[in-house]
């Protein structure tokens, strides 16, 4: 009974996805190949001998960018628009790629600056651990250097 | 008909087809033929031959050296003078917004038709966050699509998504038109005019390759002086220019 049913089903129906899930991979491949043959036979092609493409060394260009090294179009002079001045340096150095080295040197902080920063840093963090009474002493000497606490106030016995 | 055309072609070939190297710096006229298998511009290829299509001086640039030893050859082009701009892909131009329709702005760039600029083509623009662009604003952008078959399209953003100075140009200032050749001259790498201008007083300039220049200085008088100087310096010799600049520097 099942064998009889298979022969009666049409080709289009067999190509549908739900019918192909039960098939083996081999039969699937065969069906695909048949489909490809049908499609490729329908394609049109010219029955001419192969023409060699002439090698051309000439390329046509419309824009002037290739011809002349033009600068970037936005400019600002004497600090009128600082953002545009930054852009000018960026865009013009993209063409030359010389200034990139200079910029990296400036980014590094010099050793002297680091030492100076650490000096004041010690004082500011030191304030954190000082008790309330002693903070008054700290604030008096705030010229830049932080001097340590001078004398602790002790209990003074009244004299009679 | 085909015979007549063939004869015409032969007679053209008979007239001198000069080697481009010999013609460098000289004026060439449309219809002249050049011989050289290298890159070209403003010169059209006709089958195997090179024909000049614009009149002007023939210029040449040697290929910049680099890692590639056998890179492409040099560039030849015709340095001509014209006021009418033809949109070219990759050019930075100044445009005036003429209309807002739906999702795009229509921008007049001086070409045969207005260019379209999508509102998403600005840095940081999303569907909810629209750019603040009104009709009549000045826009500095570049062309993404520009050929004779389609309407030109421009954007104010580069391929990485950054603005790089493009977008709406700020308030005040003055926009005026000059020839295309002057723009190229002013944007050349070592332009004396710009260096001298920069020494006069603080100012900001934007050059559009479509022949439009926008200038801004602190006072209206200075702005007008700038505009007049830039328009006039095309026809002045170097001496006249220096005279004018020295007079301006004194005042």
TrEMBL record, chain A:
Organism: Phyllostomus discolor
PANTHER family: M-PHASE PHOSPHOPROTEIN 6
Skewed-composition ranges (Basic residues): 150-160
Superkingdom of this protein's organism: Eukaryota
Gene Ontology BP annotations: maturation of 5.8S rRNA
Location of region: Disordered: 140-160
InterPro entries: MPP6
Protein name per the record: M-phase phosphoprotein 6 isoform X1
Automatic annotation (TrEMBL), chain B:
InterPro entries in the record: Exosome_RNA_bind1/RRP40/RRP4, KH_dom_type_1, KH_dom_type_1_sf, NA-bd_OB-fold, RRP40_KH-I, RRP40_N, Rrp40_S1
One GO-annotated biological process of the protein: exonucleolytic trimming to generate mature 3'-end of 5.8S rRNA from tricistronic rRNA transcript (SSU-rRNA, 5.8S rRNA, LSU-rRNA)
Subcellular location as annotated: Cytoplasm; Nucleus, Nucleolus
Gene3D superfamilies the record matches: 2.40.50.100, K Homology domain, type 1 (3.30.1370.10), Nucleic acid-binding proteins (2.40.50.140)
Transmembrane segments: none
A matching Pfam family: RRP40_S1
Keyword terms: Cytoplasm, Exosome, Nucleus, RNA-binding, rRNA processing
Residue ranges of every copy of the K Homology domain listed in the record: 173-220
Gene Ontology, cellular component aspect: cytoplasmic exosome (RNase complex); nuclear exosome (RNase complex); nucleolus
Subcellular location, principal: cytoplasm
Molecular function per GO: RNA binding
This protein's record includes keyword Lyase: no
Domain Exosome complex component RRP40 N-terminal: 43-81
Keyword Cytoplasm carried by entry: yes
Family statement: Belongs to the RRP40 family.
PANTHER family (alphabetical): EXOSOME COMPLEX COMPONENT RRP40, PNAS-3 RELATED
Protein name per UniProt: Exosome complex component RRP40
Origin species: Phyllostomus discolor
Lineage, opening ranks: Eukaryota, Metazoa, Chordata, Craniata, Vertebrata
């Amino acid at each position: 009974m099942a064998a009889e049913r298979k022969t009666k089903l049409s080709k289009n129906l067999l190509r549908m996805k739900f019918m192909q899930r039960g098939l083996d991979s081999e039969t699937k491949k065969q069906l695909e190949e048949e489909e490809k043959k049908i499609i490729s036979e329908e394609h049109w092609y010219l029955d001419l001998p192969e023409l060699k493409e002439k090698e051309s060394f000439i390329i046509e260009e419309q824009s002037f960018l290739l011809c002349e090294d033009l600068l970037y179009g936005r400019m600002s002079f004497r600090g009128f628009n600082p953002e545009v001045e930054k852009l000018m340096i960026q865009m013009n150095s993209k063409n030359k790629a010389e200034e990139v080295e200079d910029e990296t040197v400036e980014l590094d902080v010099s050793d002297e600056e680091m030492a100076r920063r650490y000096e004041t840093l010690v004082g500011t963090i030191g304030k954190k651990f000082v008790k309330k009474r002693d903070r008054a002493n700290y604030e008096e000497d705030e010229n830049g250097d932080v001097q340590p606490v001078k004398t602790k106030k002790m209990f003074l016995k009244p004299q009679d | 008909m085909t015979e007549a055309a063939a004869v015409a072609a032969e007679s053209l070939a008979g007239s001198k087809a000069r080697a481009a190297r010999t013609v460098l710096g000289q004026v060439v006229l449309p219809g002249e033929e050049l011989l050289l298998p290298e890159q070209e511009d403003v010169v059209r290829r006709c089958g195997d031959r090179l024909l000049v299509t614009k009149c002007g001086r023939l210029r040449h640039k040697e290929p910049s050296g680099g890692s590639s030893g056998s890179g492409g050859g040099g560039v030849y082009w015709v340095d001509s003078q014209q006021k009418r701009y033809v949109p070219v892909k990759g050019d930075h131009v100044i445009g005036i917004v003429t209309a807002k329709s739906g999702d795009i702005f229509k921008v007049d760039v001086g070409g045969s038709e207005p260019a379209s600029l999508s509102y998403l083509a600005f840095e940081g623009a999303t569907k909810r966050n629209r750019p603040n662009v009104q009709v009549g604003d000045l826009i500095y952008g570049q062309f993404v699509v520009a050929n004779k078959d389609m309407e030109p399209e421009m954007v104010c953003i580069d391929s990485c998504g950054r603005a790089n100075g493009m977008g709406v140009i700020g308030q005040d200032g003055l926009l005026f038109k000059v020839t295309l050749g002057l723009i190229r001259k002013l944007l050349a790498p070592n332009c004396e005019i710009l260096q001298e201008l920069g020494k006069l007083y603080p100012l900001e300039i934007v050059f559009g390759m479509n022949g439009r220049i926008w200038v801004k200085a602190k006072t209206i008088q200075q702005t007008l002086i700038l505009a007049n100087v830039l328009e006039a310096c095309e026809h002045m010799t170097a001496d006249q220019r220096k005279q004018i600049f020295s007079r301006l520097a004194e005042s």
